[in-house]
C-alpha cells in the first residue's frame, strides 16, 4: 500500500497539486490522466519514492515497480536478459554457473575440474531451489510478449534503442511482479508511466491482459483509451487548471460520463459568474454617474474584474495548441534520393539494397514489423547514421527536419527558446515567439531547460524546432507518442495541411489517415507500393 498525505507538488513556481491525499491499495487499478504538463509524471515519481514532494508525507508498504516515462540511465553494459533477471537476483547466479561451466570444459587438471564440477552442482542446486528454471522461462515469455526477441536479450543495453531499453525495463518490472505465480510473495504495486509507448498492437493487448489480472495495486498513466477502458477500476483526473486531483471510483466509461457531467456543471458555473460580473459592471456604470456612490461603484467594478480574471486564467491553462507547420523552404523536384542502402549491426542484417526517391511535397509511410529497421532507415535518411553500402543524395535546396522518437534532437541543457533559435537564425524574434506560442510555449516556459519539460511538452518542442527551420522534408518517427488527445489532434491537423514532404513511421493509424500518404515503403525488403487503405491494418501490427 502507498499512502501520501498533505501532498503538495510544484514545478518551478507553479503549484501542480496541494493538500492532496492519495492511496493505492491492493486491487486498485488506477488510471492517472490529465493534459500534457499537468503533473502526472511528477506525481508518479513521488509515489515511487524517486522524487521529493514540496510538502507532505509518504508511506510505503511492500514492493514497488516503477516504469519512468523516459528510459533510465544506469549501467548500460549489462545484457538485456541479465537486467530482466536481476529483478529476482537470478542474474548473478546464472553468470557464476556459466563461469563454472566454462571451467569444467577447459580445465585439464582432473582435481581442478572436479572442483569446478562440484561448484557448478552447488550453484545449480541453488538456482533450481529459487525456481530459477521456471523463472528464466517466465522472463523469456514476458520478453517475447513485449516484442523483445532472443537476439536482443543477449545484447548489452548500450546497443539498444531507447524504445527497446524501455521495453526491457517494463519486462523487468512485470517479471518481478509476477513472482506470485511462481509460488512466491505477491503484492507488488506497479507504477507505470506510458507503458504502451514503443509497443506494437500484439504486445499492447498482452499487456492489457497482464495488468487486468494484476491485483497488487496499479497506477498507470496512459493516453491509450482502449487500455484504460479495459484495465482500470478507478480514475485520478489531474486538473492543471485547478491544481486538483479528482478521484473517480469507477470504471473508465462511467468516469467519462461523470467527467462530462462535472464539466457541464463547471461550464454552467462559469457562465453564471460571467453573467454576475456583467451585471456588476452594469450596476457600477450606473452608480458611477452619481458622485456620492463613486467608491461603491469602483468596488463593484473591481469585483467584476476579479471574477473575469479568474475565469480567464482557467481558460488559458486549458488552452489547446493551435499548431500550424510553416511553409517549407523552396526546393527542387526531388529533394531526397537514396540508392542501394544497406545496414547491418554486427552479423545481423537489417535491410539491404533499399532505393527510394522523395519528391517535393510527397507523403510516404514506412511500414515493417518491430526490428525491421524503420527507425534505422529514417536515421540514415536524416544523416544521423551512415549506411554500410549505398548513399543518400540530397537534392537541390533540401532541408531535412528529423523528429526522433526519443527527443534526442533536443539539447536538454538548453532552454526552450535556445532549442529553436539556433535552428532558425534567419527568423525574426517575434516570428519565432509566435511560432512557439502556437505550440503553447510562452512566458517563463521559454526559459525552461528542455530536459525538465514533460514528455508531451518535449514532443511539442521537438516538433516546433523541426518546423521552425522551414524544413521541406520531414522525417517523423512516432510523432504522436506522449501527446494528450487534444494535442495529438492538433499535430495531426497540422500534418494534414503541411505542404512539404513527409516520411512517417508510426503505430498510430490516425496519424496515417491524417497524412493521406500516396506511397508506402515496406521494410525490410524496401518494396514500394501505392498506398491503399488495406495497409492500414498493417500499421497497428507494425
Ligand atoms: N525545473 C522546472 N521548472 C519549471 N517547470 C518544470 C520544471 N520541471 C518540470 N516542470 C514542469 O512541470 C509540469 C509537470 O510535468 P510532468 O512531467 O509531471 O507532466 P505530465 O502530466 O507527466 O505531462 P505529459 O503528459 O506530457 O507526460 C510541466 O509543465 C513541466 O514543464
Ligand atoms: Mg509525463
UniProtKB/TrEMBL annotation:
Example of a GO MF term: ATP binding
Keywords in alphabetical order: ATP-binding, Nucleotide-binding, Repeat
Keyword Repeat among record annotations: yes
Pfam family, one: ABC_tran
Record flagged with keyword rRNA processing: no
SMART domains: AAA
Domain of life: Bacteria
Record-linked PROSITE patterns: ABC_TRANSPORTER_1, ABC_TRANSPORTER_2
Signal peptide: none
Protein's name according to its UniProt entry: ABC transporter
Amino acid at each position: 500500500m502507498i499512502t501520501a498525505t498533505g501532498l503538495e507538488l510544484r514545478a518551478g513556481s507553479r503549484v501542480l497539486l496541494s493538500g492532496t491525499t492519495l492511496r493505492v491499495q491492493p486491487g486498485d487499478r488506477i488510471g492517472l490522466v490529465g493534459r500534457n504538463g499537468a503533473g502526472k509524471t511528477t506525481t508518479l515519481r513521488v509515489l515511487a519514492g524517486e522524487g521529493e514532494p514540496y510538502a507532505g508525507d509518504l508511506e510505503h508498504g511492500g514492493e514497488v515497480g516503477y516504469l519512468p516515462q523516459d528510459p533510465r540511465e544506469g549501467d548500460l553494459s549489462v545484457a538485456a536478459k541479465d537486467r530482466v533477471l536481476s529483478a529476482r537476483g537470478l542474474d548473478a547466479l546464472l553468470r557464476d554457473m556459466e563461469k563454472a561451466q566454462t571451467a569444467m570444459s577447459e580445465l585439464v587438471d582432473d582435481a581442478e575440474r572436479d572442483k569446478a564440477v562440484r561448484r557448478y552442482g552447488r550453484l545449480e542446486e541453488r538456482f533450481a531451489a529459487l525456481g530459477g528454471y521456471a523463472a528464466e522461462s517466465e522472463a523469456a515469455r514476458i520478453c517475447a510478449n513485449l516484442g523483445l526477441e532472443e537476439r536482443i536479450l543477449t545484447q548489452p543495453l548500450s546497443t539498444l534503442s531507447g524504445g527497446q531499453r524501455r521495453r526491457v525495463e517494463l519486462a523487468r518490472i512485470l517479471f518481478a511482479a509476477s513472482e506470485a505465480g511462481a509460488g512466491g510473495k505477491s503484492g507488488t504495486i506497479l507504477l507505470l508511466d506510458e507503458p504502451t509507448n514503443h509497443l506494437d498492437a500484439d504486445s499492447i493487448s498482452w499487456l492489457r491482459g497482464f495488468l487486468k489480472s494484476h491485483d497488487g495495486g496499479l497506477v498507470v498513466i496512459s493516453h491509450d483509451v482502449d487500455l484504460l477502458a479495459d484495465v482500470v477500476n478507478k480514475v485520478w483526473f489531474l486538473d492543471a487548471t485547478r491544481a486538483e486531483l479528482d478521484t473517480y471510483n469507477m470504471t473508465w466509461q462511467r468516469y467519462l460520463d461523470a467527467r462530462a457531467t462535472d464539466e457541464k456543471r463547471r461550464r454552467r458555473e462559469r457562465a453564471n459568474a460571467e453573467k454576475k460580473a456583467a451585471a456588476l459592471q452594469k450596476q457600477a456604470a450606473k452608480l458611477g454617474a452619481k458622485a456620492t456612490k463613486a467608491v461603491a461603484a469602483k468596488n463593484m467594478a473591481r469585483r467584476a474584474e476579479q471574477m473575469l480574471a479568474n475565469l480567464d486564467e482557467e481558460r488559458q491553462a486549458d488552452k489547446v495548441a493551435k499548431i500550424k507547420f510553416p511553409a517549407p523552404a523552396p526546393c527542387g523536384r526531388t529533394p531526397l534520393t537514396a540508392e542501394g542502402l544497406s545496414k547491418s549491426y554486427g552479423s545481423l542484417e537489417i535491410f539491404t539494397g533499399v532505393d527510394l526517391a522523395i519528391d517535393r511535397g510527397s507523403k510516404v509511410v514506412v511500414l515493417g514489423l518491430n526490428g525491421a529497421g524503420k527507425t534505422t532507415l529514417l536515421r540514415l535518411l536524416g544523416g544521423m547514421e551512415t549506411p554500410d553500402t549505398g548513399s543518400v543524395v540530397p537534392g537541390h535546396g533540401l532541408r531535412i527536419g528529423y523528429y526522433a522518437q526519443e527527443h534526442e534532437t533536443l539539447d536538454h541543457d538548453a532552454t526552450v527558446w535556445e532549442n529553436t533559435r539556433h535552428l532558425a537564425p534567419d527568423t525574426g524574434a517575434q516570428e519565432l515567439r509566435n511560432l512557439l506560442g502556437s505550440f503553447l510555449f510562452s512566458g517563463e516556459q521559454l526559459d525552461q531547460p528542455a530536459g525538465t519539460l514533460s514528455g508531451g511538452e518535449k514532443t511539442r518542442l521537438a516538433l516546433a524546432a523541426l518546423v521552425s527551420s522551414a524544413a521541406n522534408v520531414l522525417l517523423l518517427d512516432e510523432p504522436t507518442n506522449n501527446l494528450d488527445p487534444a494535442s495529438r489532434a492538433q499535430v495531426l491537423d497540422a500534418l494534414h495541411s503541411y505542404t512539404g514532404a513527409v516520411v512517417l513511421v508510426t503505430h498510430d493509424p490516425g496519424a496515417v489517415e491524417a497524412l493521406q500518404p500516396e506511397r508506402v515503403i515496406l521494410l525490410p525488403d524496401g518494396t514500394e507500393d501505392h498506398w491503399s487503405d488495406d495497409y492500414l491494418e498493417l500499421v497497428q501490427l507494425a
